[in-house]
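Appendix C: a fully annotated inverse folding record. The material below is reproduced so that readers can follow the format used throughout the book. The structure is listed first as tokens, followed by the designed sequence.
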């Protein structure tokens, strides 16, 4: 269950970072192993561990530029309910090598339960409604979802409105 959560949040973060033109080296996640979870429960004396343990699933974003940390911080604070945050960007001198980072304890906002991967598809809904209204009025109009939209010569494949889903199809894996 937490692996699915980690992967879903990872994919959404990658999309949000791309949308905001932030180049990243990596986005990764990890799920706390059972033995580590159990040790933490014993050590901390938790009575309700699934409510009290705050790091069952962790994500890391590695970016190229220090200036991008502020942009990433805005994405995190906009997209998640931030319970705690710690800015560690100032702990190293400019000539020292090491991680300069923000650390967060976050909770998913309720809107995430409404499938965040489908945010931004409002325009598609409008096009589908438009095509359906025209069909009801006996106008021949159709929609074709494609990742390219042309044949090998560059010509259109159909007489319908071609919707380019290349952005979304690029993340499909076989």
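Designed amino acids, in order:
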């Amino acid at each position: 269950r937490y692996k699915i959560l980690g992967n879903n949040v990872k994919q959404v973060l990658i999309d949000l970072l791309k949308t905001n033109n932030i180049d990243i080296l990596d986005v990764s996640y990890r799920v706390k192993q059972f033995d580590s979870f159990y040790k933490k429960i014993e050590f901390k004396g938790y009575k309700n561990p699934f409510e009290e343990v705050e790091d069952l699933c962790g994500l890391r974003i590695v970016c190229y530029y220090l200036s991008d940390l502020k942009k990433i911080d805005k994405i995190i604070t906009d997209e998640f309910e931030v319970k705690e945050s710690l800015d560690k960007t100032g702990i190293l001198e400019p000539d020292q090598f090491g991680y300069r980072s923000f650390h967060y304890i976050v909770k998913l906002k309720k809107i995430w339960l409404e499938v965040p991967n489908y945010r931004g598809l409002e325009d598609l809904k409008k096009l589908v409604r438009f095509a359906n209204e025209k069909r009801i009025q006996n106008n021949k109009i159709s929609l074709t979802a494609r990742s390219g939209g042309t044949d090998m010569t560059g010509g259109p494949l159909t007489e319908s409105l071609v919707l380019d889903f290349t952005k979304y199809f690029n993340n499909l894996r076989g």
